[in-house]
């Protein structure tokens, strides 16, 4: 039952994280390495899953054992049981002190792991460029530098974590010794019998075991908490500004006006200043310029992937901030510089922007793109399974 509930919670957390990515502003996606985001949704959630599963199992069973043995010890002799209660916080203080040291290192480790995932994703996705410029050695050096940092932080985290269990065992040994000393004195004075002392020592031993076992999973717990912080940094980030009350843009004729627009990705670096553009329906224009001059940025603003800092953009006289994003974006036909294929059939990829497209519309689109004959030569035609690879 516990395993089922845990697995369900992990599934829900991963679903929430992925769904959150559909709602965050594009600025978040653009400013965060894609590999790091993938690491949060996949690897970090697995780390949380493994750590919390082991940790909470130990905490649950340990808590039951601690409460049970305390009850038995108090039933035998209240005075000696109080000695156990008084010494126990020492074990907790030692464990929490070491845990604080571990926490910082595991947090660094989780961040570096995300950076490595991002770097690997970047270089794997751009291997042609790396090889074309003979930058393999540079790539290896950059990866090794980051990997070495991860190794050092990981070793330190494991070292601090490894101190927890023996330190806790030492303090728990003091508890056991304290029980033995006070119990022996009480037995000599006639406070308890030798049999009761023997039983008390047995319970004291059972009482300290959960602390040793819990300290043994500190590594997994600290790593899980560090990964959880990265996941919550994603799930608790701000959503794209809601447009629930905005109207739906319909029957678009194609009049687009950009009116005195200012925009910058970074506040101190202005990219577009007082841009004005008035394009009538049916008019064809081309915007040309060097790399970085703002051509793609204009598309980002028209599609409302980003909002303007000043000025406004209107479509058929409607300010794009006053209409829903979905209706605005469905009103455009956009062809990106870099194509990307989703895993699925050729038919599904062509109809991605219009899920209710008819067979005739799909074929017409393929013919317009001059790929109908090529598709028909495939073994399964429009039902051929393809992917970006």
TrEMBL record:
Keywords in UniProt for this one? Membrane, Transmembrane, Transmembrane helix
Pfam families, alphabetized: ABC_membrane, ABC_tran
Its primary localisation, in coarse terms, equals: membrane
Looking at the record, the residues that make up the ABC transmembrane type-1 domain are: 1-223
Q: Which InterPro entries match?
A: ABC1_TM_dom, ABC1_TM_sf, ABC_transporter-like_ATP-bd, P-loop_NTPase, Type_1_exporter
Write out the transmembrane intervals: 59-76, 82-103
Stretches of the chain forming a coiled coil according to its record: none
Subcellular localization, per the record? Membrane
PROSITE patterns for the chain:
ABC_TM1F
Q: Which GO terms describe its molecular function?
A: ABC-type oligopeptide transporter activity; ATP binding; ATP hydrolysis activity
Q: How does it sit in the membrane?
A: Multi-pass membrane protein
* UniProt keyword annotation of DNA repair present: no
Say yes or no: keyword Iron present: no
User: Which GO cellular component terms, listed alphabetically, does the Swiss-Prot or TrEMBL entry include?
Assistant: membrane
PANTHER family, sorted: ATP-BINDING CASSETTE SUB-FAMILY B MEMBER 10, MITOCHONDRIAL, ATP-DEPENDENT PERMEASE MDL1, MITOCHONDRIAL
Protein name per Swiss-Prot or TrEMBL: ABC-type multidrug transport system, ATPase and permease component
Output the lineage of the source organism.
Answer: unclassified sequences, metagenomes, organismal metagenomes
């Amino acid at each position: 039952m516990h395993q089922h509930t845990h697995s369900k919670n992990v599934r829900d957390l991963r679903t929430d994280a992925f769904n959150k990515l559909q709602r965050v502003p594009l600025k978040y996606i653009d400013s965060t390495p894609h590999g790091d985001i993938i690491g949060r949704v996949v690897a970090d959630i697995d780390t949380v899953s493994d750590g919390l599963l082991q940790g909470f199992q130990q905490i649950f069973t340990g808590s039951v054992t601690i409460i049970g043995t305390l009850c038995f010890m108090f039933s035998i002799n209240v005075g000696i049981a109080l000695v156990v209660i008084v010494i126990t916080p020492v074990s907790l203080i030692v464990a929490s002190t070491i845990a604080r040291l571990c926490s910082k290192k595991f947090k660094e480790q989780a961040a570096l792991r995300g950076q490595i995932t991002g770097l690997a994703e970047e270089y794997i996705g751009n291997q042609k460029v790396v090889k074309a410029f003979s930058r393999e050695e540079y790539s290896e050096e950059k990866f090794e530098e980051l990997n070495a940092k991860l190794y050092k932080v990981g070793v330190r985290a494991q070292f601090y974590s490894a101190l927890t269990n023996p330190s806790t065992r030492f303090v728990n040994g003091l508890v056991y010794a304290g029980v033995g000393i006070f119990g022996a004195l009480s037995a000599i004075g006639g406070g308890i019998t030798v049999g009761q002392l023997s039983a008390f020592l047995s319970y004291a031993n059972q009482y300290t075991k959960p602390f040793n076992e819990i300290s043994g999973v500190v590594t997994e717990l600290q790593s899980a908490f560090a990964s959880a912080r990265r996941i919550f940094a994603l799930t608790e980030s701000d959503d794209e500004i809601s447009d629930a009350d905005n109207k739906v843009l319909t029957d678009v004729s194609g009049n687009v006006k950009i009116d005195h627009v200012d925009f910058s990705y970074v506040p101190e670096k202005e990219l577009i200043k007082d841009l004005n553009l008035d394009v009538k329906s049916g008019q064809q224009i081309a915007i040309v310029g060097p790399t970085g001059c703002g051509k793609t940025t204009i598309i980002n603003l028209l599609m409302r992937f980003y909002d303007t800092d000043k000025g406004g953009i209107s479509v058929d006289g409607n300010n794009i901030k006053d209409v829903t994003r979905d209706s605005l974006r469905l009103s455009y036909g956009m062809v990106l510089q870099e194509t990307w294929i989703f895993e699925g059939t050729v038919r599904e990829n062509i109809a991605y922007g219009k899920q209710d497209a008819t067979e005739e519309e799909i074929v017409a689109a393929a013919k317009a793109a001059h790929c109908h004959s090529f598709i028909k030569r495939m073994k399964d035609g429009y039902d051929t399974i393809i992917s970006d690879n």
